[in-house]
Amino acid sequence: xxLDRESAMQVASVLSKALPYIQRFAGxxxxxxxxxxxxxxxxxxxxxxxxxxxMKLVGINPIVVHGGGPQIGDLLKQLNIESHFVDGMxxxxxxxxxxxxxxxxxxxxxxxxxxxxxxxxxxxGLTGKDASLIKAVKLKVKKPLPEMQKSEIIDIGHVGEVSKxxxxxxxxxxxxxxIPVIAPIGVGENGESYNINAxxxxxxxxxxxxxxxxxxxxNISGLQDKNGKVLTGLTTEQVNDLIADGTIYGGxxxxxxxxxxxxxxxxxxxxxxxxxxxxxxxxxxxxxxxxGTLISNYK
Length: 299
Known about the structure:
The chain is α/β, with parallel strands linked by helices. About 40% of the residues lie in helices and about 25% in strands. The protein has a single domain (about 30-130, about 175-185, about 195-295), classed as Carbamate kinase (3-Layer(aba) Sandwich). The protein has helices at about 5-25, 40-55, 70-80, 95-120, 170-175, 200-210, 235-245, 250-265, 280-285, and strands spanning about 30-35, 60-65, 85, 90, 125, 135-140, 140-145, 150-155, 160-165, 180-185, 185, 195, 215-220, 235, 270-275, 290-295. Strand 1, helix 2 (about 40-55) and strand 2 (about 60-65) form a beta-alpha-beta unit. Helix 2 crosses helix 4 (about 95-120) and helix 6 (about 200-210) packs parallel to helix 8 (about 250-265). The radius of gyration is 20 Å and the shape is globular.
């Protein structure tokens, strides 16, 4: 396809404006959590894969951590296995854990790897069990008992939290110009499998590799104030104030907690971005405007 002069000038302008960002982030690591709405459309999945390939080609080192809750739910339904949730977390018995591993470590992981490779990249899929990448412990959920001054511990099965990230395999792949694609399945002390929240894994991976950025793709336009306006350029102190006054609540709290932990533990900035926008990762990294909320410790 031949571009007319005006279109060609627009392309040149976009590339020229991206140059300072490419120079700034070359050699840096960016961890991207891919999931939710961004995984549901073929066009969005393809644009995401192209973004990862382009980032790698210009010298940035992307690491992908993915979710897969809807896909897990679909297969459980097909197998007539009922899903139960406690505080938004899937109760995961042994049978459900088998399905989680099948979907996250197999279906979803391999689809993302194949998409990246199809667009000219080199990707390798991993679960946290590979090379003991994600060490995990059982997550204990506490529910307050209103009639007593104590909490009840609820067993939600094979649901875990990260105890340690082993970066050896990530470093090896990154040094070989390979994009790691990680399924959020952890391994316990005795080899048992744990289902872990993908946002949490992405944050802990970002901390472990001293990432420049943590990008959390979501299904909203970013962190919003009480009037629905997207907030950005926030410090961790400002975010804590928004939590305290109730602006941030419910399902957004775990995501924001991951972002805050990452920024407080060495990651330069965390971003809550709209995964429904094509090429959202490139827009957030290579433009001034971005497509979401940036959180950092810089005032």
